[in-house]
Amino acid sequence: MIGNYEGGFDVASPSKDWFENLKHEANAWFVNKLDEVSDETEKKNEYAVDSRDVQLHYLYQAVKEDPTIENMNALQAELQMRTQVDQRFAQMFPVHMESVKNKSYPNPT
To answer: How far apart are CA 70 and CA 62, in angstroms?
Structure first.
């Protein structure tokens, strides 16, 4: 019987509804594993950076660690470029940009 390996079953007096017991034990194990994965994911996401923001974070860290004129100029150039891109998108797709600001994220059309 699978209970010999999974545990939770009394082998000496097998239950008539052993399949229900098996489903219950498997469900409990699965839910426990999902909770563990969810906790790990939440911890990782605290430090995650959106792939589109990697360059910005890199330049920001460079300025924090070594505040040279070159690093500051590079960060400023990145911010200016992003501002221009945001302005272009706001002109071309005002409804989409407004919903992104409101965190409603519409489906693309």
So the answer is: 10
Question: Cα–chain-centroid distance for residue 103?
Answer: 16
Asked if residue 13 lies in contact with residue 33, where contact means CB atoms within 8 angstroms, the answer is no
CA distance 109 to 97: 13
Q: 20: how many CB neighbours lie within 10 A of its CB?
A: 10
pLDDT tens-digit map of 12-66: 555 557 777 778 888 777 777 666 666 666 766 777 788 888 999 999 999 999 9
- Tell me the Cα Rg of the chain: 27
What are residue 3's phi and psi, to 5 degrees? Answer: -60, -25
Domain boundaries, the chain: 18-48, 51-101
